[in-house]
């Protein structure tokens, strides 16, 4: 029998990397409004504290954890320490960076910085949390932030697209492997959202007009558009959903 309570996240604890701003902060708020306690993880202590205060004012129980996902020793250790006192039920791998550059000009430093954050960091955070969940004999949910570039090629975004395509592959592989541990691994693929990281694109009026013409809903995404899908994937309503990626793109992928 269908029970609306399956959508509730009451009593669960969720870590959102890159949770101090943009999509990560919106996801954290959505999870909190569905009943979860949330931990915003990231590098910028001031941004995290500001976000925790704002979420608290909105009635969301939130805390901050300073870590750098690129630190493949320090970040997992920080998550394990957190789990020992605050058992983690949900991880949202949102931390990510982009640097627009023509492919012929991409150097090893740029490649490593993007892949180390978006893909390598995401894996080792997921691994750390899965180890904790497994040691406690508990299941859980992991949601990775993929992208339209997980599916399509975008000029000047070769490193970013490679990281996000890899993240989609990682999502499917971990879902297959960790199902026996009761851990579900899914992803969302946000389309074109105007955030601090993507602001550079929206300064180009011709680009804006061209992209709006390609999006069936004829608008760009708003940060609040992502929270519902993530909350669903983390809830018992998605108990039989794993290894999937939901595109939140106004119909862009469906129309090409």
From TrEMBL:
InterPro entries: NAD(P)-bd_dom_sf, Sc_DH/Rdtase_CS, SDR_fam. Transmembrane segments: none annotated. GO terms for molecular function: oxidoreductase activity, acting on the CH-OH group of donors, NAD or NADP as acceptor. It comes from the Bacteria. Pfam families: adh_short_C2. Belongs to the short-chain dehydrogenases/reductases (SDR) family. This is 2-deoxy-D-gluconate 3-dehydrogenase.
């Amino acid at each position: 029998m269908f029970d609306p309570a399956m959508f509730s996240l009451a009593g669960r604890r969720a870590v959102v990397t890159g949770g101090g701003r943009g999509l990560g902060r919106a996801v954290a708020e959505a999870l909190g409004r569905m009943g979860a306690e949330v931990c915003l993880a990231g590098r910028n202590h001031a941004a995290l504290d500001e976000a925790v205060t704002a979420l608290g004012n909105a009635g969301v129980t939130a805390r901050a954890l300073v870590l750098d996902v690129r630190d493949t020793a320090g970040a997992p250790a920080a998550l394990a320490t957190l789990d020992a006192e605050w058992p983690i039920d949900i991880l949202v791998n949102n931390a990510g960076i982009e640097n627009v550059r023509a492919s012929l000009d991409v150097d090893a430093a740029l490649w490593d910085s993007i892949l180390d954050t978006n893909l390598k960091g995401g894996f080792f955070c997921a691994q750390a949390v899965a180890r904790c969940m497994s040691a406690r004999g508990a299941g859980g949910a992991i949601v990775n932030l993929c992208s339209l570039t997980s599916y399509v090629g975008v000029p000047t975004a070769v490193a970013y697209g490679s990281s996000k395509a890899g993240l989609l592959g990682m999502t499917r592989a971990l879902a297959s492997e960790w199902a026996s541990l009761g851990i579900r691994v899914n992803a969302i693929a946000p389309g074109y959202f105007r955030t601090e990281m993507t602001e550079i694109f929206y300064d180009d009026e011709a680009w804006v007009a061209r992209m709006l013409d390609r999006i069936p809903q004829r608008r760009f995404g708003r940060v609040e558009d992502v929270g519902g899908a993530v909350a669903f994937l983390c809830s018992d309503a998605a108990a039989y959903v794993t290894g999937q990626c939901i595109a939140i793109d106004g119909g862009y992928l469906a129309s090409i």
